[in-house]
Amino acid sequence: MPIRLLEPPDAETAAAMLAQSATDGLSLVPRGCGTKLSWGGDLPRVDAFLSTRLLSSPIDHFAGDLVATVPAGATLAEVNAVLAHERQWLPIDPAGAAQATIGGIVATNDSGPRRQKHGATRDLIIGIEIALADGRRARAGGRVVKNVAGYDLARLMCGSFGTLAVILSATFKLAPLAPASRTVIADVHDAAGASDLALQINAAPLSPSAIELQAPRHRLLIRFETTEAAAIRQSQAALAIVEAAHGTGTVVEDEGERDAWRRHEALVWAPGGLVLKVSVLPTEVAGVLTELERLAAGTGFAYAVVGRAALGVLAVRVDAPDDISVMAVEALRRVAARRGGAAIVIRAPAGVMARVDPWGDVGAASAMMQAVKSRFDPLNTLSPGRGPAGL
Amino acid sequence: MNNRFLDRLAAAVSPGALLRDPVELLTYESDALVHLRATPGAAVLPRSAAEVQAVVRLCHEHHVPFVARGHGTGLSGGALPVADGILIVLSRLNRILDIDIPNLRVTVEPGVTNAEITRQVAPLGCYYAPDPSSQSVCSIGGNIAENSGGAHCLKYGFTVHHVLGVEAVLPTGDMIQVGGAVLDPPGLDLLGVMVGSEGTLAVVTKATLRLLRRPEAVLTLLAGFGSIDEAGEAVSAIIGHGIVPAAVEMMDRLTIDAAEAAVHPDFPKTGAVLIVELDGPQDEVHELFAIVERVCHASGASTIEIARDAAARDRIWRGRKAAFAAMGRVSPNYYVQDGVVPRTRLPEVLRRIRDLEARSGLRIGNVFHAGDGNLHPLICYDEAIAGQAEHAEAVASEILQYCIDAGGSITGEHGVGADKSKHMSKMFGPNDLDAMRMVRSAFDPAAICNPGKVFPTPRLCGEVPGPYRQHPIERAGLAERF
After folding, report:
1. Is A241 found in the same domain as A207?
2. Does A109 sit within 8 Å of B185, measured CB to CB?
3. What ranges make up the beta strands (E) of A216-294?
4. Which residues of B touch A375 (CB under 8 A)?
5. Contact call for B186 and A364, based on CB within 8 A
6. Which of A33, A117, A139, A208 lies in the 20 to 30 Å Cα band around A4?
7. pLDDT tens digits, residue range A28-50?
C-alpha cells in the first residue's frame, strides 16, 4: 500500500488524525519539509507521513520579552524573517535553514556554528505543545524563560526524532541581532595546530559567536558578532593570537564573510555522501582529526570535516563506495569511543544505512529510553525504529 | 516500618549512618520551607554511590517510599520527608572528583556545595555559573533537582544549561549514566527532563558540570527611579537596544527601606532602584555600559551610581540580597512568593498587586529579577493577629493567579515541591499533567521516589499555612534568601 500523506491544516486536525491513526493501528512519521527524513534509523514500517507544513502561522513574537512561539511547520528562515523586523532572531543556524522547519529542528536537536555562543536547540527551547499518540494535545514549559513548574518535556522532545509525540509548536528564548559581524579565517599547519588555536581563542577574553574548524585543510573560522567597534577590536585580537601561533589569518566582512560561511556549510552538507557527528572532549579533537587523516590516506577515501572545535562536536563527511563508507563508520566509532566520545551517523546513502546502526551504543540508559517511549507511544506507532536505542 | 527492612538498611550503610532517634530526626523534618514538616521513618547518610544504590534497592524491594535531600535549603518543600519513609541525606557525598580546566569540566558528588566548586576553580580563572542566593550552603544535587538559577541566569541560563551528565540511581535501584563529559550523547535527552524534576525521578550520585572562564570585565550600576514603571521602562529600553545584561534586579520603596534598616547599602530613597550588571570583554562591556547609563538617564533616573571596584559592587549586591531577610525589620512576619510574568507584563501585574495590597490591608514589598520577570512579592503580616497568616497565604496565592493570567509561571526558581503542587492544575491542564506523569511512571512505576511532590494531590490534613520563618542556616548568617 502506498504511503499516505496527511496534511492537517491546523493543530486540532493534526491531533484528530493521530487519534484516528491510533484507532486504525497505522504507523505515522511526522515530517516538515522532509529535509531530514533520511536521518536516523531506517523506517521499517510507515503507513503515513503526517506533514506539519501547513502549521506555519501565526508566529507570535513577544519582542520585549525576547521570546517567540512558533508553529512546527514554519521554516527557520520564515521565522527569522519575521523576528528580524524587531532586530531579533532565533539563534540557531543548522545547515539548510531555508528549508528546515522548526518541528524538524527540534525533533533532531539540530544546531550550527553559533552553538558556540548561543547553545543548541535544547538550550533555547522554553515551551512546547505536542500531540500525543492518542490524539490528546499537551503543553509543557511556557512563554517565560525562567520557569521551573513541571517536567521539562520540551527538552525531552529535542532529539526524540518523532518517536514520542508530534511537535505542534515551540517557544524559544531569542537573541538580539548583532549590529556588526567579522570573521577571522585562519590557516595553520596541521590538525593539532587548528585544535590548539581553537582552544586558545576560547580561553581568551573574547566573545566569539563561532569557532569553526575545517579539515583536511586545517582552517579555522572565528566569528565575532557584536557592536561594530567590538567586532573590529576582537577580530584584530584574534588575528594576533593566530599569528603568535604561526598561522596566517585574514579578516572578512559583508559579502566576503557570507560567502566564507556558505562555503563552510557546503563542505559537509552539499547533497550526497555519508555524514557522521563525532562528539569528543575538546582536547580530543586534534587526535580524532589526526587519526581520521591517517585512516583516509590508508583506505583512500575523500573526507571533509566542519565543526565546533571548542565544544568538541564535529560533522564528518565521507565520500566513498558503500563498502568503504561502512568501514569508515566502524573505524570512526572506534576512534571516538577510545577517546571517550561517540559517533552517530546523521545521513548516509541507502546502501550504507542498511548496514550500520546509525546511533551506535546508547549505553545503560537505553532501557529507560525504552520505558519512556512505551509510556508515550504504547502501540509503537510513532516513527517506529527511527529513534535512538531502537525506539 | 518493619524490622527486617531496618536491619537490612543498617547493614547496607556504614555504622552510625542510619538515624532512628526522634531527636536526631528533628533536623530532617523540613527543608527551608519550615512550615511543612514530617518525621521520616528513618534517615540514612550514605558515604558512597554504592550505599545510595543499596538503600534505594531495599526501598524498592520493600515498597518503602524515599526522599533524597541535599543540604535542606529548598524553599518549596521538595525535600519534605514522607512519614514512615526513608530520607536519604546526601551531605556526606561531598567530594570533588575531577577538575579538567582545558575542557572546562568538573565532576562532583551531589553533596558538594555550589560555591565550593567556584572556590576550587577560581584560582584557575574559572567559575560555576548558576548562583542561587543560597550558594554558600546549597548542594549541587539540590540544584540539579530544582534546576536552580540565580541573579545571573538572564545571560547564563540555569542549572540545566551547565550539567552535562549525571550518574543516578533509579527508583528500582538500577544505576544509570545519563550524558557525560562529552556533548550530544546518542539517545533521548533524559538528562533534560531529570534536571528540575525535583527528586521525583532518580537520585543523582555524581554530576559532570560545565565551567566558565571569568569574564574580563564586570560593571555594575545602581539607578534610582521615581517609580517601578519608570525603572521598568529603562529595562525595556536596554533590551530594545539589543543588550542582554548579566543581571537586572529591581526593588521597590518598601524593600529599599527594609534593606537600608538591615545592612545600610545606602541606596537612594526613591520609588524604585534598578541594578544592572554587564560582563564580558573589557571594550565591549564599556561600550554597552555607556548605552545602559544613557538609557537610565533618558528613562528618568534621578540618581546613578556606578560601582568602580569590587567593594562598591559587593555593597550594591549586599543591599539586594538582604531584601528578603530585611523585611523582618519592617514586619513581624512575611510570606515570600515566587512567580514569573513575561517581563513586558510587569507594570500591569504590579498594578494588580498594588490594588491587592490596598484591598487586603497587608503591605507587600516587591523585589524581583526584572530581566526575566521573576517576582518575589513579600507579603507582610503579623501572626499574633488571628487569621492574618491565613490571609497572607491567600494573598500570596492570588498573586500566583495574576502570574498565570499574564501568561507566566507559578514558580521561577523555588520549585513546585509540596508547597505549590496544589497550584499546578491552574497552570497545566489534565493532558499536560498526564504527559508529565508518563515520564514519572517510566522512571518510578511504584511511585516511591519523593511521592507527593510536583503533581497536584488533595491538601494534607492539619497542614498550616506558611508564614516565613527564618531557617537555622539563615539565623546562623550562612545564607540569605534571594
Report:
1. yes
2. no
3. 219-226, 248-252, 274-279
4. 438-439, 441-442
5. no
6. A139
7. 999 999 888 888 877 878 999 99
Q: Are A109 and A253 members of one domain?
A: no
Residues of A in contact with B341 (CB under 8 A): 144
The answer to whether the CB atoms of A153 and B181 lie below 8 A apart is: no
* Model confidence pLDDT, tens digit, residues A326-359: 999 999 999 999 999 999 999 999 999 999 999 9
Give the phi and the psi of residue B398 in degrees, each rounded to 5: -65, -35
| ipTM > 0.90 (yes/no) | yes
Could you tell me if residue A387 is inside a domain? no
Report how far apart the first and last C-alpha atoms of chain A are (Å, whole number): 24
Judge: A226–B239 Cβ closer than 8 Å, yes or no. no
What is the number of residues in chain A?
391
- Secondary structure of residue A165 in the 3-state scheme: coil
pLDDT digits (tens, 9 = 90+) for A171-201: 999 999 999 999 999 999 999 999 999 999 9
H/E segment holding residue A71: strand A67-71
Query: A325 lies in which domain range?
Result: 271-353
Judged against a pLDDT cut of 60, whether residue B467 lies above it is answered with: no
**Can you give the pTM of this predicted structure?**
0.95
Q: Hey, what domains does chain B have and what are their CATH numbers? A: 1-214 (3.30.465.10), 217-325 (3.30.70.2190), 331-414 (3.30.70.2740)
Q: Are residues A228 and A151 in the same domain?
A: no
Counting Cβ atoms within 10 Å, is residue B332 exposed (0-12), middle (13-18) or buried (19+)? middle
